[in-house]
Amino acid sequence: MSQWLAHVIERAAAVDDWLSPVRAEALAKLKEQSWPGRRTEAWRYTSLHAVENLSLPTESNAQAEAPAIKGLDAIDLVFVDGRLTSDLAALNLPEGLTIRSLTDKSDIAEQVFTQVKPSHHLFGLVNDVLATQGIVIEVAANATIERPIRVVNFATDNVESHTRVLVSLGDNAKATVIEHGSGTGHSLNTAFAEYDIADNARLEHYRFALHQGEAIHVGGSHFKLANKSRLNSTLIGYGSQLTRLDVDIIHAGEHAHAKFNNAYLLAPKEHFDLHSTIEHAMPNGTTEENARGIIGDKAKAVFNGRIHIHRDAQKTLAELNNRNLLLSRGAQINTKPELEIYADDVQCAHGATVAEIDEEALYYLLTRGIDKQKALVMLNFGFVQEMVFDMPNEALAEWLQPILKQRFEDMMERS
Amino acid sequence: MLTIKDLHARVEEKTIIKGLNLEIKPGEVHAIMGPNGAGKSTLGYVLSGRDGYEVEQGEVNFNGANLLDMEVEERAQAGLFLAFQYPVEIPGVSNMEFMKESVNAMRKARGEDELSSAEFLKMAKEACKQVNLPLDFLKRGVNEGFSGGEKKRNEIMQLIMLKPKLAILDESDSGLDVDALQVVANGVNSQRDGERSFIVVTHYQRLLDFIEPDYVHILAQGKIVKSGGPELAKEVEASGYAWLGQADEGEKA
Ligand SMILES: Nc1ncnc2c1ncn2[C@@H]1O[C@H](COP(=O)(O)OP(=O)(O)OP(=O)(O)O)[C@@H](O)[C@H]1O
Ligand SMILES: [Mg+2]
């Protein structure tokens, strides 16, 4: 038995808030879980050794400000080490947008908390029982919220924290939500977010998991799509000591469309694990996922891309491609497609490749006098940068591009 | 500037250039015309040093150096520029970073200081204006989603910024509307200074109304079969290449 898990269960028993009945169910499930090892499918290539007997304080007094992004006028909500530090009452919100703390009882919170099910592995359950701090975002039917809503989640040093974000978009609603996480110290942070997207609603979503160094970050973003809704999501991840993310996209209605781009850039020795699950439960849905990785020396990436097309999900179109670039012989990628298709009239493509240089593009750069070494660097970084250029929010793209480029150049130097 | 002597070159297993001779002096503009598949684009690729284009025989001298001995980027740094018939799209590399890298590589090769970001931006903005491309093109991926005409204008913008000694323009006029044709022609003419030379590959007289050539050559079946002054282009426009077929049969007989 993991000492850390035993301690979690002990702490969970002491949590008492309006969600307690829901938490109790999760706690019961958690108690049945054994500690994941190599033979646990979801954790096959990711060791939890660093968490097993971890013992960190569960509170801090740290303060932090949301980092400003030029050109981004966002509604900022800030967690520091699991504490919601923003004064929600002081927010000046546009009509149609309600933001509550998870500590306040609301039907919406209960509905999203219980009905958009994450891929419930151990940490999802841990978050269910311990995340007392959270944000509930509700966008009313027919409302278009122009200002992006940004949830900043800092993990400082020597602290364990658990946070939750619950989002509900009513019929025809439109909004942009950014989950912006970071941390460099020795910390454990679990951060899960659930999105309930109603008929015809549109969500533009970003998750930046920019944890580095000794940080341990486990989280997920889960989307439930109703009829004719649309999701455009971009995830950018670093590795840190251990970063594990689960993204579930569930087509619960017909004619929904999801686009999910993700890119991970792993500095030497980092570990990054992304499990992506695309569930088509209903007909006529489309999903396009592009996953791109650049992996530095002695770093390890795990990409598990599951597409599950249920029997009734006829006329589904699902495409997933994963391309990885290993910067040295010591870099590692475990990429695994998982296709389960039970409908017969579907189009489904799943490809995983090691990135290859486009010879024609290389020639073009050379004819412009750029040396081969530099041209290769540009093209290699280009295939991740493509995901940045594809982000609909230009201010975010312009902020992120130089940060990732710098990280890439440092990785090249150290590989 | 450029001397090509008895050039033979092949792509994969097929010999395309078969005994081509051409002499270009500083400041001259040479137009090359010829039927589809004659080898015009191939000549550009061979001169630029593209992989897979193998020289079987002949010599090419570029400003005193053996061009065929040089790597692709060295040829470019020595002042050779090729404006592509079909420019490639590179989605993950922005025009801005690409052009900055390129301009600075050329400057370095010429022994000049690299441009600062601000200096580069100023130059890029001016060039954008000159070819009538909106500024946000600089932020987009290289040629990504550009229309055919925009790609051609982007090639001319690069020509303006890189200031090569010899520019080969491979059908820079095809697919252009009348205004864009004028933009491209003006862009090229702005670079004519009596020193720089140009090879203009085209199918149409209308471009040559704007960029007046000193010589016109007809390239067919891998070599130059006829050379003349601007009037030769007008002949082609009027009567096409039917006469080539006859000449060819005569050769075989
Ligand atoms: N990779 C290749 N393998 C085999 N043949 C090739 C290859 N590339 C080009 N060719 C052939 O070489 C010949 C010359 O092609 P090229 O593109 O140089 O013609 P062109 O004169 O530029 O024609 P156009 O006016 O249509 O642009 C053509 O017959 C073409 O099919
Ligand atoms: Mg051609």
Automatic annotation (TrEMBL), chain A:
NCBIfam families: sufD (TIGR01981). Pfam families: SUFBD_core, SufBD_N. InterPro entries: Fe-S_cluster_assembly_SufBD, SUF_FeS_clus_asmbl_SufBD_core, SUF_FeS_clus_asmbl_SufBD_sf, SUF_FeS_clus_asmbl_SufD, SufBD_N. Belongs to the iron-sulfur cluster assembly SufBD family. It comes from the Bacteria. It comes from Idiomarina baltica OS145. Residues 157-383 form the SUF system FeS cluster assembly SufBD core domain. This is Cysteine desulfurase activator SufB. Transmembrane segments: none annotated. Residues 17-151 form the SUF system FeS cluster assembly SufBD N-terminal domain.
TrEMBL record, chain B:
The keyword Transmembrane does not apply. CDD domains: ABC_FeS_Assembly. Residues 2-246 form the ABC transporter domain. InterPro entries: AAA+_ATPase, ABC_transporter-like_ATP-bd, FeS-cluster_ATPase_SufC, P-loop_NTPase. The keyword Cell inner membrane does not apply. Keywords: ATP-binding, Nucleotide-binding. It holds the Pfam family ABC_tran. Belongs to the ABC transporter superfamily. Ycf16 family. This is Cysteine desulfurase activator ATPase. It comes from Idiomarina baltica OS145.
